[in-house]
Input
Amino acid sequence: MRESYVILEKIKADPYSATLEELTVLLKENDEEFNEYLFQTADEVRREYVGDEVHIRALIEFSNYCRRDCKYCGLRRSNRKLRRYRMKPEEIVQRARMAAEMGARTIVLQSGEDLTFTAETIADMIKEMKKFDVAVTLSLGERDYREYKLWKDSGADRYLMRHETANPELYRKLHPDSRFEERLKCLKILRELGYEVGAGSIVGLPGQTAWDMAMDLIFTRDMDCDMVGIGPFIPHPDTPLAHEKPGDFIMCLKMVALTRILIPDSNIPATTAMGTIKPGGREITLQCGANVIMPNLTPTPYRALYQLYPGKICVFESDVRCLPCVKMMIERLNRKVGTTYGNRVKKKAA
Ligand code: 5AD
Ligand code: FES
Output
């Protein structure tokens, strides 16, 4: 336990000195007092590097069709029970306009890997949305260089694509139709094209060890990710992992806190999954290193159908409620609602 404090001080002073072994020790440490100290440290680092602003990213989940078959995900193509939907491009742009009018400075377009949305269709939506004075983030999965380039040239600012797990063997088991190397290739292309890039992992996947999670931390650090999304595994009843146990909330918080310490100036969301496995989970996450929140702007009736995992919060809320709700949340926490696009501002160690 003494050892954990020593490691923490060392990696806080020099994030690139952190080794897999050291991070594994910290993740396995279950002394409550140490964990509290870790959370408090991450909260201080967050304040020092990115301040008290919480950036709001309005999320539009515009299609739940997916060509992939990820074992954990409710949108997987083998899930025949799910009713599928696609919003119309006009409807998506209209929703983005509304989010901008409500004060959102970033729009996130997310979907399953739905190739019926051609690169050109997406590009046209980006151009329309850029008229609303917003940053545009895409989260559309794996596509090729030409498509990523077209979207960047059309004005897209950021791309979110979690690496899910940095253990290639575990990745293979969970993703029957894709490979970790392919994911990595996409992330590298996105970076090369000048996107702000977000990766991140699922915590508590079946078969995942503390060592694997330490690999996730090292992976996002070494990529110098601009954004890192982390959340617990939540078993979906209509997937092969239905009967596995969910990820642990405290372990997720430790992953968030350590990510903040390893990449102090990154943008880290308090994810919806954190709010789903624990009431008030997003609020707690915002006080353990996170500085971003992603209110759901997906219109009814589609929002209930975007079932990555069961029990997702906000599904039964009015579809205009989440944005004002997260603003109130930020104020309750004595933080400030971000007024800028909330790009990453690279900072040298203080
Ligand atoms: N539990 C937790 N996270 C999940 N995701 C998909 N399915 C689940 C699940 N069952 C996450 C993946 C994906 C993101 C959009 O949602 O990390 O990248
Ligand atoms: Fe959706 Fe609070 S964020 S209701």
